[in-house]
Amino acid sequence: MKRLLCVLAVLFLVEAPAARAQSLLAEADEGRGDLGELLRLSGTFWSRLLGDRPEGNPFESLDEGFRRYDVTPEIGGVVSGSGIGLGFTHTLWHEGQRAVRWSALATSEGYFQLALVHETVLKGNERFRLRTSLLHRDLAQEDFFGLGLESERLDRTDYSLRETAVGSELDVGLSRTVGLRIGGDVRRLGARSGENRALPSPEIRFGPAAIAGYGDDFAYATIGAALFWDTRDEPEYPRRGSLIQGDLRQFIGLGTGDPGFRRFGVELQNALPLPGHDHGLVTRFRADWLDHGSETEIPFFFTRGLGGSHSLRGFPLNRFRGEDLVLATVEYRSAILPGKLDAVVFWDTGGAYRSFSDMRLGGLEHSFGAGIRVLRRDRILLRLEVAQGSEGLRFLVSFSKPF
C-alpha cells in the first residue's frame, strides 16, 4: 500500500496532458467547426481583395460583434450526417479556470442540440479537470439498413431518436502523455418514426420483433472510463506521434425490462512524417464490441455504425451496423500550402457484425477517395472529399476532423 501511495504521489505532480479522449457523455457527437475562424479567414481575403479602399469589412465587423459578447459561432452538425447546421457557444460566467457555457445548434435536416456545461480545474491543479454537462438532442432523420454486412441498400429506413442526459467527467493527467477520463451519466432516450416521409420506418420494413427497442423509452445510468497514451503533436490534426486508447462503459438499465450491457473499445492511431516535402502517412484502427451476457436483445440504436464522413466514407452514414465492428484507415496527406491547404488520398476498410465470430477478412467492405482540407492553426476548417465504395460514388463536406 505504501508503494502504491508513493507511485500515485509522483503521478499527481506531473502536468496533465490535454483532454484528448472522446467525450463519454456525447459519444456520437459530430464535432463542429469554428465559424469565427472562417469569418477571420474571409476577412483577411476581403482586405487583400479591396486593398486600402474605404469600404468596411463585413466579416471583421461580424467577428468583432461575436467576440464582444463572448459568443463563439459554430458550423457543422449534431451528429455525422445530420446536415449542415449553425449554432453558437456562449460563456455565461468565467472566473479563473472555471466557466459555465451553454450552446445550441440546429441543422438543415431538423436536428437540434442544446447543452449546458460547467468546467473547472480542481483546486488550481491542472491535472484534474471536471466537466458537468446537461445535454438534450433530437436526431430527426437517422438511417437504419439492418444489422451486419448482409444488410441491403434498398432496405433503408428512417427513425428519430430523442435523448436527454446529465453527467460528469473527470480528466486526470497521469503524465505528460498518459491520461485517464472517468465519468458517469443518467440518460433517457427513445426511438420513434423519423421525419423523412419518403422512407418507411424500421418496424414496417423489418417487423417489430426484429427491431429491439423501437417505439419504447429507456432510462440508463452509465459509468465509463478511458485510458490513453498520446504522443501526437496536435490531436486535432497530427503530423507525427501516436495514440493508444482503451475505453469501456457499463450501461445499467433503470426501467423494468431495460437490458444492461457493457461496451468496450480500442483505438490506435499513428502519424508518420515522410522525408522531403511536407507530407506523411496517418493510420487508424478501431474496434468496438458489446457484451450483454444474456439472450436479451439490446435496443438497436445502441449498435455502432460504419459509413459517413468519419469511417467508411464511400458509404452513407450507418450503412452497416452491428454490436461489434472493426475499422481501419490509411491516409496520405500532402501540403499544397503548408499549414493552410492539404491534399489527401485515403483508404478505409471495415465491417459491422452481430458478433465478431461472423467476421471474415475477405468479407470486409472497402472505400477509397481523395480530397482537400482547409486548415488554420493546425485545425480543420473545411473538408471536401470524394469517396468510392461498392455501392457508388459519394461527395462529402465536413467541418470537423476525419477521426
3D structure, described in words:
The chain has helices at residues 2-11, 35-50, 58-68, 202-206; strands at 32-34, 71-76, 85-95, 98-107, 112-121, 128-144, 157-173, 178-193, 217-230, 241-253, 261-273, 279-291, 304-306, 320-322, 324-337, 341-353, 365-376, 379-389, 392-398. With 403 residues, it is mainly β. It has a single domain (2-31, 77-398), classed as Porin (Beta Barrel). The strands form two sheets. It has a 17-stranded antiparallel β-sheet. Helix 2 packs antiparallel against helix 3. The longest helix is centred in the first third of the chain and has 16 residues, at 35-50.
Count of beta strands: 19
H/E series: HEHHEEEEEEEHEEEEEEEEEEE
The amount of beta strand, in percent, is over 45%
- Quick one: CATH class? Mainly Beta
Which superfamily, in CATH terms, is the homologous superfamily?
membrane protein fhac: a member of the omp85/tpsb transporter family
